[in-house]
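[step 3/7] fold_predict: job queued, chain A
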Amino acid sequence: MTFPYRAALLALPIFLAACAGVPPAAPVLPESSVTRAYQQSVDINGRMSVRYQINGRDEALHGSFEWRQRPDNTQLTLLSPLGQTLAQIMVTPDGATLTQAGQPPLSAADADALASQALGWPLPVAGLRDWLQGMVTVPGGKRVALAPGNDGDIVSADGWRLRFPAWEDGAPARPRRIDLARSTEQAGDVALRLVIDSFQPR
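[step 4/7] structure written:
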């Protein structure tokens, strides 16, 4: 074994260890000239579908959602295709509460963890505050407005892969459809699709 080859082998574990300690880089978003005011108070209605696995078996859920956001709280209601309430999540500065018909309310400090626990599949409630408005929060807390052409293959800080394949015409344009995907230990490969039917600032 030659000296350079042996040295390379000895250096490999050190290199791999160094790489393991480096967090993944934040996604670099293309520059955009879009100016869009973030709405602290907004009502959004739309349709939702989710695919996930339970014990290796494929499951699917279809329905609609209602998003009611105010400066000090957010309420997300999940509805069946017939309009029955499947779950309602209320988020305030003090934490989150989830209610389902015929079951006692559940509470937790983190809305995403609460939804995952109760529903059996992950629902990124915190991220939706940005994504439903066509925005992404980058390191440092700055919200960046997306637009058609600078919205593909975005990975959030918590591992969701985002795509915005359809937009409403307007000035500025707003998302019409959002596709989310993530691999999880709990529910396998999760694919979530949201179609926004109405967007009403309040």
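[step 5/7] annotate
The CA atoms of residues 52 and 58 lie 6 Å apart.
Helices lie at 3-20, 111-119, 125-131.
exit 0
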